[in-house]
Design a protein that fits this description.
The protein is an alpha/beta fold and 374 residues long. It folds into three domains: 4-46; 95-317, P-loop containing nucleotide triphosphate hydrolases (Rossmann fold), CATH 3.40.50.300; 323-371, no CATH class. It has helices at 26-46, 51-59, 63-74, 78-91, 111-124, 138-141, 145-151, 153-157, 175-188, 204-209, 224-229, 232-235, 251-267, 290-307, 309-335, 338-352, 358-371; strands at residues 4-5, 22-23, 99-105, 129-134, 161-164, 193-199, 214-219, 240-243, 278-281. Bound molecules: guanosine-5'-diphosphate and magnesium ion.
């Protein structure tokens, strides 16, 4: 037990004159209690919710838990991966009830502005709208999240809407795995419409096409040359081409451009069986053509559901999901294999110098990759 002491400046000859004592050791005890309390408090603050808590939270439409669930699937940590899969497994039977819409176009085509206008229109109809983004450049440049957030200012404040910027690529699957899983979680949380924005460069539009029911391409006017140069491939993916920014002095031109696109679409392979893709004009700034696009999408959904094409596509997408994950995993584990990482720069130089064929270099790399796997 602590020994009681008088302060040093009290008179040792007259101890009773000073009634206060210092209890040695008590201060220490009190302090450690404070520290402990603080640790407990901090632990409670950063405590990760359990899978059950997340499932219950998502299903009840709790936005905080929804955001946490998506953060979990976006995490690059291995222990989170397994927890995320457990969560998805539990939510899977509650997903699939929304209409999934992909929106692509070159940077500056107005995709984010369109989503703001279209999303607000849908919210006003009483629908709940989730917006996800895939930005293939985001893992390199840090993304255009800031730009998008300011473009979707009204929508981001709407209680019926939920906006999630692009995840970054990493271990155990690229951005598309994360986007697909975020989409399933949003569906389980009761969102009626999922809008996925992607920059139309390279492969991302093909990836999104494989994830959505309806796919639209936003284009600009005065694109005569661009139209010629535009890859037939991307137009063949589109269920609708939207000639955007059809306002002011641009209105007449937009109508001409619409006709040109319609003519081309007419000769192309349809993106969806039984559906003929057409071109429309739209101005997100003026709010024109927004309702018409929704009518087109509703018509598309109705026709696809009665013919069975809608369900058939979704089934095919579920199957393809396996293969895209396999590709992801292989890609990741190959390029992160220590021996491959070690040997690759040297082999690259040798191939560039013409000392080795690419096939020989790849064989060496695969041997290194597979040695410990046999
Ligand atoms: N005139 C006009 N400009 C628009 C319209 N929609 C977007 N813009 C402008 O186009 C620019 C790019 O828009 P943004 O939504 O960021 O394009 P994104 O890169 O495709 O997402 C912005 O300066 C917008 O204000 C529209 O309907 N009419
Ligand atoms: Mg954008």
């Amino acid at each position: 037990m602590a020994e009681d002491r008088k302060p040093e400046w009290s008179d040792p000859n007259e101890p009773e004159k000073f009634s206060t004592v210092i209890k040695k050791g008590e201060e220490q005890e009190a302090q450690s209690a404070i520290i402990e309390k603080d640790v407990v408090y901090r632990k409670r603050q950063s405590k990760e919710p359990s899978v059950e808590e997340l499932v219950a939270g998502v299903l009840s439409g709790n936005r905080g838990q929804l955001a946490r669930a998506i953060t979990l699937v976006e995490s690059n940590a291995e222990q989170h991966f397994h927890k995320a899969q457990e969560l998805l497994q539990k939510l899977l039977s509650n997903s699939g009830k929304s209409i999934r819409i992909g929106i692509t176009g070159v940077p500056g085509a107005g995709k984010s502005t369109f989503i703001e206008a279209f999303g607000m229109f849908l919210c006003d109809l009483g629908l709940r709208v989730a917006v996800l983004a895939i930005d293939p450049s985001s893992s390199l440049s840090g993304g255009s999240i800031l730009g998008d957030k300011t473009r979707m200012e009204k929508l981001s404040r709407n209680p019926r809407a939920f906006i999630r910027p692009s995840p970054t690529a990493g271990k155990l699957g690229g951005v598309h795995r994360k986007t697909r899983e975020a989409m399933l979680i949003c569906e389980a949380a009761g969102f009626d419409v999922i809008l996925i924005e992607t920059v139309g460069v390279g492969q991302s539009e093909v990836i999104i096409r494989d994830m959505v029911d309806f796919f639209m391409l936003l284009v600009l006017t005065g694109a005569g040359d661009e139209l010629q140069g535009m890859k037939k491939g991307i137009m063949e993916l589109a269920d609708t081409v939207l000639v955007h920014k059809a306002d002011g002095a641009n209105k007449v031109k937009a109508e001409q451009t619409r006709k040109e696109y319609s003519r081309i679409l007419h000769f192309l392979q349809p993106a969806t069986k039984g559906w003929s893709s057409k071109a429309y004009t739209c101005s997100s700034l003026m709010g024109e053509g927004i309702k018409e696009i929704w009518d087109v999408i509703k018509d598309f959904e109705e026709k696809g559901k009665s013919s069975g094409v809608f369900a058939e596509r979704r089934k095919g997408q579920q199957r393809d999901w396996i293969y895209s994950l396999i590709t992801d995993q292989l890609h990741y584990s190959f390029f992160h294999h220590p021996d491959v990482k070690l040997k690759l720069p040297q082999l690259e130089n040798e191939v560039m110098a013409g000392e080795k064929t690419a096939a020989t270099a790849v064989e060496i790399l695969f041997n290194a990759f597979l040695t410990d796997k046999k």
